[in-house]
Task: structure prediction
Amino acid sequence: MILNAIKEKLLSLSRIHKRSIMMLIDAVLLILVLLISFYIRLGYFYLPSVNLLILILIAPIIALPIFYSFGLYKSVIRYIGLKALISIVQATTLFASIWGLLSYMTSIEGIPRSVILINLMLSIIVIGGSRLIARSFFESTSNSSQEQVNIAIYGSGDSGMQLSNALKISESYKHVAYIEHNHSKVGSYVNDVPIFLSKDMQILIDKYNVSEIFIAKQFGSQKQLKKIIDELSYFPVKVKTLPSVDDLAEGKVKMRDIPEIDIEDLLGRAPKKSDPNLLKAKITDKSVLITGAGGSIGSELCRQILNLGPKKIILFEISEIALYSIEQELNSMNSNNIKIVPAIGSVMDKKRLEAICNFYKVQTIYHSAAYKHVPLVEYNQSQGVLNNSIGTLQAAEAAISCNVETFVLISTDKAVRPTNTMGAAKRVSELTLQALAKQNHKTCFTMVRFGNVLDSSGSVIPLFKSQIKTGGPLTLTHRDVVRYFMTIPEAVELVIQAGAMSSGGDVFVLDMGDPIKIYDLAVKMIQLSGKELLDINNPDGDIEILITGLRPGEKLYEELLIDADISKTDNQLIMRAKEEAMDWEKLKPFLIELKEASLQENQIKIRELLKKIVRDYKPTSPIVDLLLKD
Result:
């Protein structure tokens, strides 16, 4: 307890105070080393003359500037390594040489030449040793202050060794093993830590009580990382990733804050290079408006657009708290002083949109405002239609009247052969823009369709994370549900590029990769959190998966294409779909009726109209709107 209190006191000192203490200790040690050097050489305690005593006392005056110039007071004691020790040898050698030369030039009697050599060797031992003792002190007091978690590091190369060194001063973790896939390394040691094969995980769990695995994210490609994670998911250990060792060294990530595995790592999607010309085409030096700016997709659009140098960025959002949040975030990262406009409003208010577009001379609109939670929209059918379908129409008409150059709609895979109101309403919005694109005006309309994004509000992954933290069970609607997934930043980057490719009325579809079975994802998340699945085959497990049944409007599989007629673009992750559309003259009366039925809460009429407009709409549940009359 006393040692830990001393350690905490020392660590709390300012950098200047720490350096002053180190210099004072070095000064005292150098004087003692010279006195001991005479004692060793002469064999008895030697009382130096006045002149010699002065020469001994000025040793720190010679040494400390040299030590400072060699960086001996810049190294953090707790992280001192081989490079710092080499600097100590070089600095003390230079100091001892200068002191020896000075003693020779002053011709002071009673200084044997061997004292100079003894002083050199003792100085290296004492100055270097004092730092190693201090490092040992900080490590031992840290390690004894609380119970540590035994961890293994995947990979014994440079990244693994750097992680191991960082862990030596951790109060939370103890590094007990390396894991390798290279058989030739197995059985050897790195820094006294043994190396095992990944298939020996059960031995590490039983013998070494390993409960967590650390992986450095730079340990290879995204595909390799996914393979490693899949390998480890069969064992009851937590798997965590580190952004980089550099982030640890720079203090951006603390050992106590090491995150559990990112779900995006389970996708194994390698990052693709973007076309900077496409990214900038509709944004740089332009006035850009984002509807739904505070949502999952809208907020990421705001972040990426800000970094692409727009003239102005207008945040259009109906939620006050969401608007405030994204405005504050953008202001904190707005190093180029780009004008950020927080505008409260609804996409149903065309006059408000027109006023903003005219006042700020908007050139590009990204329309991401939408209700997207399938069951909630099913229970609030009229509002889903008004916001997702009629809101898109109002925003599009405002864009046309204000001569906005580009209008990009964020659509969804649920618009393809929809089985729910949300998907049908989004398909109506697509048909609306396809029809308007054929009219005579200056606005280029584009639609970008993709599936689920990771960690968006209301998605299954944040729900699973929360349920795992509380001990379960994980709730799943059906064992065979399959979904496409993509990270939010990747989806938004592709949306921006697709928007720049359009010639008007295009439907772009993003390559979502392979579909993922949600049940398998749930099992893997349980395993990677260090828990075991509780089921009929493992009654002693930790967390159960509870099948609750499909909710109104949900379907097992999502699709991205209505027709198979697609063509490639310059970006391999963006496809152009050629799909049947409806003429504006035919669609417009339906939209007028749909708006009126929604405003009057005529739920039966709304569904009838959706079926007429979207021929592939086949609802899987009866009308369940909260205001449906019995």
Notes: DSSP finds 23 helices and 22 strands in the chain. The CA atoms of residues 21 and 355 lie 66 Å apart. Confidence is low (pLDDT under 50) at residues 249-253.
